[in-house]
Amino acid sequence: MGSKYRWFVLLTFFLFMLVHQADKLLIGPLTTPIMNEFKIDEAQMGAVSSFAIIVAAIFYPIWGYLYDRYARAKLIALASFLWGSTTWLNALAPNYTIFLLTRGTTGIDDSSYPGIHSLLSDYFEPSIRSRVWGLLSTSGPLGYILGMTLAVVLGGRLGWRGVFFVTGTMGILIAMLIFLGVKEAPRGRAEPEFAGVEVIPIYRFDPKAAKGLFHNPSMRFLFIQGFFGVFPWNALTYWAFRYLEAERGYTADEAAIVMAIAIVALTIGSIIWGLLGDLLFKRTPRGRAFLCTIVVFLGAISLLTALNVPSENRLLFLMLIALTAFIIPVGAANVTPIIQDIVEPEIRSTAQALQGFIENIGSGLAPLMVGLIAVQSSLGKAILLIGISTWILCSIFFGLLTLRVPKDMERLRSIMRERAGIKGWR
After folding, report:
1. How many domains does the chain have?
2. pLDDT tens for each residue of the chain, 426 residues long
3. What's the CA gap between 290 and 226, in Å, rounded?
4. What radius of gyration do the chain's Cα atoms show?
5. Residue 425 falls within a domain, yes or no?
6. Whether the model pTM is above 0.70
7. CA 267/CA 286 separation, integer angstroms
8. Is residue 196 in some structural domain?
9. CB 261, CB 319: distance < 8 Å
10. CATH number at residue 37
11. How far is CA 224 from CA 293, 296, 375, in A?
12. How is 19-86 classified by DSSP, letter by letter?
C-alpha cells in the first residue's frame, strides 16, 4: 500500500469523524427547540447527553476487543452504519422517554474511534503521528461548525427531526465508502524497527497483555487525567450555546458567530499543537507530555478569565473564549500518539478503548452536573467550576506523566527491536 493511499485512508476517516461529530454535536445548537417540544428543563436535557455518553463508555471495551481481534476497517464501516440507523431512530422519538432511550443508542457508535486510531498507527510512523492526530482532531470543531450550520440553515425549514434524518443518511453512505474503499494494514507496519522488513511478524491479541495496561505507569497517569480531561469539553460543547443565549443576552445568530470563531480557534489549535507535539517529541521523549502539562494549565486560567468578563464587554469575552478554544485540543493531538508510543500494536485498540471508557465515565457526568448546578445557580458558574477544577488536575497528572513516559517508551522500543530481529516470529 503506497504513500498516497494512506492519505486516502486518512481523509476517509476524517470524513467519517467530521460528519459523525456534526451529528453528535447537533444536539447543542438544537437544545432549545428540543427542550421546548418535550417541555423539559436543563436537568432533563443534561440527562439525555449524559445517558448517550455512558452508553458509549460501556461499549468502549467491546469495540476495543473487537478491533484488536478482527479486521478494523470492516468494523469501522459497521460503526458508521449503526450511527446512521440510530440517528434515524432518535429522530422518530414521539416523546421525551423514547427520545432519551434512542439518544442512548446513538452512543454505541460514539466509542468506535479506537479502531481508527489503531489502523492509522499502522499507516503513519511515530514521528508524524501528532500532526496526523492534530489534523484528524480538527474533525471535532469543524464537525461542530457543520452541525451548527445544519441546525441554523435546515433547522427552521426541516425541524430538528429533519436535520437528524439528513445526518443519519450520510452515516449510512459513509459506511459504504469505508466498507468498499479502506483496506486493513498489518499491525505494527509503521513502527521504525520494521522499516525494510518484507514480512511483518503476526502477534495476536493477548488478554494478559491487555490487563497489563493497568500496570503500565504512564497508562495509569493517562487514565486518571482522561477521567477529568474531557469534563470541560463536554460542559462547553453541550451548554455553551444556551449559556450565550440565556446568560449573556446573545441572539441565536450572535451566539452562532461566537461559536464559529471559537471553533475556528479550536481547529487552528489542533493543527498547531500537533506540529509542536511532533517537534518536541523529536527533541525529547517527554516532549508531548510536557506540552500538555503547560498548555492545559494555561487553559484553566484562560477559561477563568473569560467567564468573569462583564456581559457588556463582548469583544474581550470573544478574544478570551477564542484563546480558550485554541488551547483545548492540545490533548487530542498528543495523547493518542503517547499511547501508541508505549503500547504494543496488537493491543492499541484496547488501550485506546480503555482510555475512552474511563474518559466517558467521567465526562458522562459533565452535562448532567452542569445542568444540576445551573438549576441551583447559573450555567456560567457551573461551567467555570467544572472546567477550572478538572483542568488543574489534568495539568498535575500530565506533569507526572512527563517524568515517567521515557521509560515506558523504551520498553516498547525494546519489544519492537526483539520482534524485528526474530525470523518467522509468531
Report:
1. 1
2. 557 899 999 999 999 999 998 888 787 778 878 888 888 877 788 788 778 878 888 898 899 889 988 889 999 999 999 999 999 998 888 899 899 999 888 889 988 898 998 899 889 988 899 999 888 988 887 887 788 788 878 877 788 888 889 989 999 999 999 999 999 988 888 888 777 666 666 767 777 878 888 889 999 999 999 888 888 877 777 778 888 888 888 887 888 788 889 888 988 999 999 999 999 999 999 999 999 999 999 999 999 999 889 988 999 999 999 999 899 889 888 999 999 999 988 889 999 888 888 887 776 677 777 778 877 778 888 888 888 888 999 999 999 999 999 999 999 989 888 887 754 433
3. 16
4. 21
5. no
6. yes
7. 24
8. no
9. no
10. 1.20.1250.20
11. 14, 15, 29
12. HHHHHHHTTTTTHHHHHHHHT--HHHHHHHHHHHHHHHHHHHHHHHHHHHHS-HHHHHHHHHHHHHHH
Q: Which amino acid is at 333?
A: A
User: The dihedral of CA 6, 12, 16, 21: what is its sign?
Assistant: positive
Q: 295 lies in a domain?
A: yes
Task: Please state, in angstroms and as integers, the Cα–Cα distance from residue 245 to each residue in 25, 33, 260, 374, following that order.
Answer: 17, 13, 15, 14
Report the distance separating Cα 19 and Cα 366, nearest Å: 23
Domain carrying residue 345: 3-190+208-420
Report d(CA 16, CA 170) in Å as an integer. 9
* Domain membership flag for residue 202: no
